[in-house]
Structures are given as structure tokens and as C-alpha cells.
Design goal:
It is built from 13 helices and eleven strands. It is of the alpha/beta class. The protein has two domains: 257 residues, Type I PLP-dependent aspartate aminotransferase-like (Major domain) (Aspartate Aminotransferase, domain 2), CATH 3.40.640; 96 residues, Aspartate Aminotransferase, domain 1, CATH 3.90.1150.10. The strands form two sheets. It has a seven-stranded mixed β-sheet, with helices on both faces. Helix 6 links the parallel strand 2 and strand 3.
């Protein structure tokens, strides 16, 4: 069983693979020069420009300094605690590269949960330990401590959880982070749709904690592929060591900087989505094929129905695509439905009522 005393916890650097700690990272032309200049002839870029009107012939800032400064200001977190990735999926992959020795180290997940944790583990040669959520879709800290061992380097928790939609108990998350000698990763991709606060405030006291965020959900920027990790400066430095030199494009950095100036609009959208979610939940509960709608803190709802495969196919035939999660452990009989616009939700509800009438 993994060490449970707080004082036994190692620093991120001590938990990292020795080869990564010793790694001399690739240095790009932009690493070797900082500041302003009149002429850049150092990076073998196309000095004549590009066929686009925008000046994309230059490499982007490899450390996204302007973007990090803005994120730091908005989140009230030090810049050295901010890592920016090509979506949070890249951050997940990099965490495996930093902390898990292939063929030796392990990660722990609590299914049902986001599938990329397991996929990234397999790609990186890390064994996956599984401690299922309880029937209430919450954590069992003691079971997690019993299963994790000395070679368990990463623990992944998604809160609000995908595909169940619920927040995980914050006290349990912090208890786990304080009692294991491993990196604890809390994925807050859907936190903006919850009335609960982020776990970011616990970073200072827990150097083994990593909080993931994405701009794909509440910010509506899935096409830009930008995600962040908030973590101990040691963790951020290790991630910077192993990331590709220019992992976030100049276009993505510019567009996200522009979007971040419109936080009020995002707050309006998330508020509207929460209202639509509550209305959709209430309406779904009145439809005969629906057996249960699980309460959600995300921008989707998990719905148990009478025949998930038949209903899924019925909806697809009518141009509506939801996600069949009925083969996922603890989600048997369930569809995952993203909250749409009012018109989209109404169309979904009409088709579900029609299905109920036809089957009945």
C-alpha cells in the first residue's frame, strides 16, 4: 500500500523519471533570444511572408508568455504555475512522459471517467489501476489507497466527471492528495458549469496536485485546441522540458488572447447553459422512455433509458446524435446528452416523445 503520511510525499521533481530530470531539452531559436529585434534571421523562417494576409511566417512564442500573463491575471495564479498545452489531452500525455517509466510505473483511474487517461497510459507503457466510483459516482479514498502502490505515479480524477456529470467530493480529493506519494491530477474541464469553486486554491499546500482546464467547453473554443495545467512550478518546469518546442500555434495564441477579453460573454453563456440544463433535465424526466436523469454539474446530462441502443439509432435516423454510454461500467442503460440550444433541446424532446408513443 502506498505511503499515507503527509511528510512522506515527494516533490514533483523527485517523483519524475530520472531521465527527464537529467534531460537537456531542445532549444529553439526563440529560446536562445528574448526581447525585441528589427530583423530575425535565426530560425530559418520564410522571410518573404506567407500566402495569408496574417503574418504567420514566424514561429510562435514557445512559452506563450503573453497568454500566460493574461491567464495568470484572470485566475489569480502565479505565471510560473501555468502551463499551456495543445489541448488538455497534450498535458495528459506529457504527464505520463514526465512521471511514468514505461513498463514500470502505473497510473490509477476511477471509472467511469474520461477515456484519454487510459489511452495515454497505454501509449506510454504505463499499467492502469482501476478503482471504480461508488454507486453514487463518488470516490472511495480508502479503496484508492489500498490499490495504489509505490510504483503508482499518477492518479487521475475528473470533476465534474465525464460521463456522469457530477462533482467529486472536494474533501476526498484533498485527502487523497495529502496522503499519497504520487501526482494527483484533477481534470476540471467542466468546472465552469458548476456552482462549486475550483480546487486550484489548494495548489500551494499540495505540490503534488495538478489541475487541468480546457478552453473547449465553457469558452466554446474546441477548434483552437488549447488547454492549461495549473501546478507547482517544479511540475510546470518539467512539462516545459518535454513538450514540443512550439506546441501551441501562433493563431491559437492570438485568438485565445482575443477571446479572454470577453469573459463577461462566457459568463453569460455558461449561465444560459446551466438554465438550459436544468430545463432539459426536468423535461426529460417526464418522458416515458427515460428512467432516470442524473444530476449534472457539466454541460451534459447522463440519462438512463429503456433501450439505449434502439433510442440512439432512432435519434441518429432523425439527424440527432447523442453518445451511447450503455457499455461503460456503472453507466449501463445510459445515453450522454450534451445540452443544446433551446431549439435543439426541443427537437430532441419531440423525437424522444415520438419514440415513446411508437414503442408504447
Amino acid at each position: 500500500m502506498i505511503q499515507s503520511k503527509v511528510e512522506m510525499r515527494s516533490t514533483p521533481r523527485a517523483l519524475a523519471r530520472p531521465s527527464i530530470v537529467a534531460l537537456k531539452p531542445y532549444t529553439s531559436a526563440r529560446d536562445e533570444f528574448s526581447g525585441t529585434a528589427r530583423i530575425f534571421l535565426d530560425a530559418n523562417e520564410n522571410s518573404l511572408g506567407s500566402p495569408l494576409n496574417e503574418a504567420f511566417n514566424r514561429y510562435p512564442d514557445p512559452y506563450q508568455r503573453e497568454l500566460k500573463a493574461k491567464i495568470s491575471e484572470m485566475e489569480s495564479i502565479a505565471e510560473e504555475r501555468v502551463f499551456v498545452g495543445n489541448g488538455s489531452d497534450e498535458v495528459i500525455d506529457l504527464l505520463f512522459r514526465v512521471f511514468c517509466e514505461p513498463g514500470k510505473d502505473k497510473c490509477l483511474i476511477c471509472p467511469p471517467t474520461y477515456g484519454m487517461y487510459e489511452v495515454s497510459a497505454e501509449i506510454n507503457g504505463a499499467e492502469v489501476l482501476r478503482v471504480p466510483l461508488t454507486k453514487d459516482f463518488d470516490l472511495d479514498p480508502q479503496a484508492i489507497r489500498n490499490v495504489a502502490d509505490e510504483s503508482t505515479k499518477l492518479l487521475f480524477f475528473c470533476s465534474p466527471n465525464n460521463p456522469t456529470g457530477n462533482l467529486l467530493d472536494r474533501d476526498k480529493l484533498i485527502s487523497i492528495a495529502r496522503s499519497v506519494n504520487a501526482m494527483v491530477v484533477v481534470d476540471e474541464a467542466y468546472i465552469h458549469f458548476s456552482k462549486a469553486g475550483s480546487i486550484v486554491g489548494f495548489l500551494d499546500a499540495n505540490p503534488n496536485l495538478v489541475v487541468l482546464r480546457t478552453y473547449s467547453k465553457a469558452w466554446g473554443l474546441a477548434g483552437l485546441r488549447v488547454g492549461t495545467a495549473f501546478a507547482d512550478p517544479e511540475t510546470v518546469a518539467l512539462l516545459n522540458k518535454v513538450k514540443p518546442p512550439y506546441n501551441v500555434s501562433d493563431a491559437a495564441q492570438r485568438l485565445l488572447l482575443g477571446a479572454l477579453e470577453n469573459e463577461d460573454r462566457v459568463l453569460e453563456m455558461t449561465g444560459e447553459i446551466i438554465s438550459l440544463r436544468e430545463a432539459l433535465t426536468e423535461d426529460l424526466e417526464s418522458i416515458p422512455p427515460v428512467q432516470k436523469v442524473y444530476r449534472s454539474d457539466a454541460n451534459f446530462v447522463l440519462v438512463r433509458v429503456s433501450d439505449p441502443v434502439a433510442i440512439y439509432e432512432y435519434l441518429v435516423d432523425r439527424g440527432i446524435v447523442v453518445r451511447d454510454r450503455s457499455r461503460v461500467r456503472l453507466c449501463e442503460g445510459c445515453l450522454r446528452i450534451t445540452v443544446g440550444t433551446r431549439d435543439q433541446n426541443d427537437a430532441l424532446l419531440r423525437e424522444l416523445r415520438s419514440y415513446g408513443e411508437n414503442v408504447g
